[in-house]
Design brief:
By secondary structure, this protein is α+β, with helices and mostly antiparallel strands. It has helices at 21-24, 63-70, 73-79; strands spanning 35-39, 44-48. The chain has one domain. A two-stranded antiparallel sheet has the order 1-2. A hairpin with a 4-residue loop joins β1 (35-39) and β2 (44-48).
């Protein structure tokens, strides 16, 4: 995909950034859309979630989400000696 434009922005104290409207108008960046944030050694990419390969979806599973299944007495017992 070719580079369309380069813009600058400011990161707030909460780590938030604003994406200029004409860039948000690119397919997949509508209000309420889910995005994937990919961190590399030299850059960060924002992609519409629909562009992310299904095999990568497990990488988005947070500890909080996984804790539903893993925070149990049975799991604690199974792993206590490791």
């Amino acid at each position: 995909m070719p580079l369309l434009e380069i813009k600058s922005g400011t990161i707030t104290s909460k780590g938030q950034i604003s994406i200029p409207k004409h860039i948000r108008d690119v397919e997949g960046f509508k209000e309420g859309s889910k995005i994937a944030i990919l961190a590399f050694d030299d850059r960060i990419e924002l992609r519409p979630m629909k562009q992310v390969d299904e095999r990568m979806h497990t990488a988005f599973a947070s500890e909080k989400v996984l804790a539903k299944d893993w925070n149990s007495k049975e799991e604690d017992e199974a792993w206590k000696d490791l």
